[in-house]
Specification:
Elements: E1 2-6, E2 17-22, E3 28-34, E4 37-40, E5 48-52, E6 59-60, H1 62-66, E7 70-71, E8 76-77, H2 80-85, E9 88-90
Antiparallel strand pairs: 1-5, 2-3, 3-4, 6-9, 7-8
Length: 95
């Protein structure tokens, strides 16, 4: 199973300790642990965990794919090469 955490940025410091609480309704909160104290960084209503279905394929950057597309105001034409070369945001998940 994979999750996307909306509204949460990765920690800036490599050795910094963080704690995350994930609730059954998909909301989560993140706190920083420093000198034995806990400092809340996010408010649960501002964050959300979204489950990605098992065995999904590569998730690509749609905006990058559209950069070289042809739009005739009816259809959008994209080459397989542009799809294959677009940056992968989340790689294919296997069983």
């Amino acid at each position: 199973m994979s999750l996307i955490l909306k509204g949460i940025d990765m920690p800036e410091k490599e050795n910094q300790m963080y704690m995350m609480e994930l609730y059954a309704d998909g909301h989560c909160s993140v706190a920083k642990i420093e000198d034995g104290k806990c400092y809340e960084l996010t408010i649960p209503s501002e964050t959300e965990a979204i489950q990605i279905p098992k065995n999904h394929g590569n998730l690509k950057d749609e905006n990058e794919i559209k950069k070289n597309s042809i739009d005739d105001d009816y259809d959008l034409y994209v080459s397989w090469t542009d799809i294959d070369n677009a940056p992968t945001i989340l790689g294919k998940e296997r069983k």
